[in-house]
TrEMBL record:
Gene3D superfamilies given in the database record: 3.30.70.120, Periplasmic binding protein-like II
Record-given protein name: ATP phosphoribosyltransferase
A GO biological process held by the record: L-histidine biosynthetic process
Start and end residues of each ATP phosphoribosyltransferase catalytic domain: 65-214
The species this protein was found in: Coemansia thaxteri
Catalytic reaction equation(s): 1-(5-phospho-beta-D-ribosyl)-ATP + diphosphate = 5-phospho-alpha-D-ribose 1-diphosphate + ATP
The family this protein is said to belong to: Belongs to the ATP phosphoribosyltransferase family.
Keyword DNA repair among UniProt keywords: no
Lineage of producing organism: Eukaryota, Fungi, Fungi incertae sedis, Zoopagomycota, Kickxellomycotina
Pfam families in alphabetical order: HisG, HisG_C
InterPro entries: ATP-PRT_HisG_long, ATP_PRibTrfase_cat, ATP_PRibTrfase_CS, ATP_PRibTrfase_HisG, HisG_C, N-reg_PII-like_a/b, N-reg_PII/ATP_PRibTrfase_C
Superkingdom of this protein's organism: Eukaryota
EC number(s) given by UniProt: 2.4.2.17
Main subcellular localisation: cytoplasm
Keywords: Amino-acid biosynthesis, ATP-binding, Cytoplasm, Glycosyltransferase, Histidine biosynthesis, Nucleotide-binding, Transferase
Length: 306
């Protein structure tokens, strides 16, 4: 008789690199977009937290963002995407290797207090008072600094854990201040709070175990992600310029290494093709126009490799 405890609906992940991504929340959509961009193909069945990648020896594991750093640190998971805030809070920074900062999930971990309370203007004003947070370790470390205490467990400030809706704590009379993530500031302002200290600037990171089981495959993923981030950051700019102005044009658009210059059929003119940071492209086009460049084209880059 078959063993009744073997769950045959669980996929076989043996010999696959386990890659953890947040199962929901703020990072979920961006992570799925990134996986798609780097060519990872998978089919996640409803309610299933493991999905086999069809075109690479990888299994995706969908986990709460807050747990991913600890799993990677312990080696249960080989590679993962989570927030820097979570790595620091779970005190795993020495046990995971940070491969790439991903440029999304950007926010700040801030100490916040009721805006109407004139006596709470800086984090020092909350020393000895009640703080509610989901980030108890980072909060205790910050208040240990403020109190001049070596051991964060010996601070006099009372730090209490809640798992969500932290911003409600002051209004409910449960706390004098909170420590929580702030991006636009809308949540904080809607709760009548304002920031009085920043503990950490955070964003999403690709992390691996310090002793990865599949170093080659982890490196392939890292290179692909780097390619996508470069492609998102740069555009390809093409223009024609008189050869006599080429030197000045190259100063405006030096490129990542150097511009590609090809001769045009028209005597005394060249065509330039060069990568330009997206956020600078408007200024660069203005400067090139002023220099006499013509037919300036800007093209999106789908993918890149150094
Ligand atoms: N407002 C935000 N803007 C940008 N990044 C954020 C924001 N809130 C959280 N993050 C980042 O996303 C990570 C996961 O937070 P998220 O809120 O998605 O998890 P969660 O609270 O477990 O999920 P949920 O809010 O769906 O219950 C955080 O640790 C942080 O790095
Ligand atoms: O500055 P803002 O743009 O308003 O973003 C900040 C809010 O985002 C996160 O909460 P989330 O929406 O994930 O809800 P949660 O508190 O249930 O985790 C965070 O905990 C803040 O409450
Ligand atoms: Mg949240």
């Amino acid at each position: 008789m078959a063993n009744a405890y073997i769950n045959t609906s669980l996929p076989d992940t043996a010999d696959r690199m386990l890659f953890a991504v947040p199962k929901k929340g703020r990072l979920y959509d961006q992570c799925l977009g990134l996986l798609n961009s780097i060519g990872i193909e998978f089919n996640r069945k409803p309610r299933h937290d493991i999905a086999l990648v069809s075109n690479m020896p990888i299994a995706l594991v969908f986990l709460p963002a807050a747990d991913i750093a600890a799993y990677v640190a312990k080696g249960n998971i080989d590679l993962g995407i989570t927030g820097l805030d979570i790595i620091r809070e779970s005190q795993t920074e020495n046990d995971v290797a940070e491969l790439i900062r991903l440029g999304f999930g950007k926010c700040k971990l801030q100490v916040q207090a009721p805006a109407a309370n004139q006596t709470l203007k800086s984090a020092e004003d909350l020393v000895g008072k009640r703080i509610v947070t989901s980030f108890i370790n980072l909060t205790k470390q910050r208040f240990a600094q403020l109190e001049g205490v070596d051991d964060p467990e010996k601070i006099k400030t009372q730090v209490r854990f809640v798992s969500g809706s932290v911003e409600a704590a002051c209004g409910l009379g449960l706390a004098d201040g909170i420590v929580d993530l702030v991006e636009s500031g809308d949540t904080m302002r809607a709760a009548g709070l304002h920031a009085i200290d920043t503990i950490l600037d955070t964003e999403s990171v690709l992390i691996t175990n310090q002793h990865p089981r599949f170093p080659k495959l982890a490196q392939v993923i890292q290179q692909r992600v780097e390619g996508i981030l470069t492609a998102r950051k740069f555009v390809l700019c093409q223009y024609n310029i008189a050869r006599s102005s080429l030197e000045s044009a190259c100063l405006i658009t030096p490129g990542r290494k150097a511009p590609t210059v090809t001769s045009l059929e028209q005597e005394g003119w060249v065509a330039v093709s060069v990568m330009v940071e997206k956020k600078l492209i408007g200024d660069k086009m203005d400067a090139l126009t002023e220099l006499g460049a013509t037919d300036i084209l800007v093209l999106d880059i789908a993918n890149a490799r150094a």
